[in-house]
Amino acid sequence: MNSKLCLFIIAFSVALIFGENSIYFEPSKYSFQIKTNGLQDISSLIPGTMISLKKMTNSTDALRITAGISAGSNTYIPNNSTNESKSNSFSIGLYITKLKYAYRNKNLYLYYGYGPFGKYAYQFSDDSYEEMTTNSFSGGLNGCIGVEWFFSKQFSLFAEYSLNATANYSRVSKRINESNLVSNPTITKGFNLNPNSVLIGLSIYL
Predict the structure, then answer these.
(1) Less Cβ around it within 10 Å: N or C end of the chain?
(2) Domains in the chain, start-ordered, CATH in brackets?
(3) Model pTM?
(4) Over the stretch 128-180, which tens digit does the pLDDT of each residue have?
């Protein structure tokens, strides 16, 4: 079984056990969420981390807007080379999700959601031979199922398993450093289904 799905099942089981509580909490109208792509990204925090604002429209429905931004710059020397290479990258994603709280057991809530999303990514690399620039666009429909456990009135922990139906467009251009020759861009288009993305995080209710 996929390790990310196992993580989601474990989180659901733990929350189910601790959902029994004599004091019951409910989501308030507005909340702020911080979430990341699994346990391995918590130490680095920024890569893979997403920020959300959520508004409850009634006792069971909510609208959530999520943004994720990452950037990086690296300088390295490839194997069998004395020349320095460098790369820069940047990406941004935006999700709009309609959520439905479908089940409640004391302080444990099970929910599902769906909505559109879009992403843009830029990557530049330069070595002694060539420069390469990649611009990628993707968008489609995101679906999720999650479990949220309230351990106080203002705070909750959650785990979320998602699936993306994605259309992709990528444009790659290259320039030969020695001759300053620019090649024709390479265009790639496609569609894929991306399962097994697990987000874990903290909700802060206002």
Answers:
(1) N
(2) 3-201 (2.40.160)
(3) 0.77
(4) 778 889 999 999 999 999 999 998 889 998 999 988 999 999 999 887 766 67
